[in-house]
Amino acid sequence: MKRDMDLIRKLLLYFEERASFAVERNPKIEGCDEREIGYQLLLMAQANLIVYEASRSSTNPERLIAVYPFGLSWEGHEFLDAARDDTMWKKAKDAVLNATGGLSLAVLKALLVHYAKKGLGLGA
Fold this sequence. Notes:
With 124 residues, this protein is of the alpha+beta class. It has helices at residues 5-17, 34-46, 74-83, 86-100, 105-119; strands at residues 50-56, 64-72. The protein folds into 2 domains: 5-73; 85-119. The termini are far apart.
């Protein structure tokens, strides 16, 4: 299964909009199945984008089987703040894809921050 940065962004927006910080066992995103969402949530947990409760393997406690998110972590808020604008998101995503053929979270965030700074007149 592939990492889907668009779905990750949608999930970050979803959790930011929630009025509660209670655990959410089955978040629903239109057009996405539970398996896709579950995989992206595992990746988001590994990237420290969400605060979550973990279900771990009984034979290997290091292995995450599923995560049950409460909401965004500090890092999740930071990434979402950089990725919030639809136009900037598309511009950064296209630039990174064209340059590297993939979407690294770190590179994507760095470019989004660069665009934000440039928009503020803080950098070239």
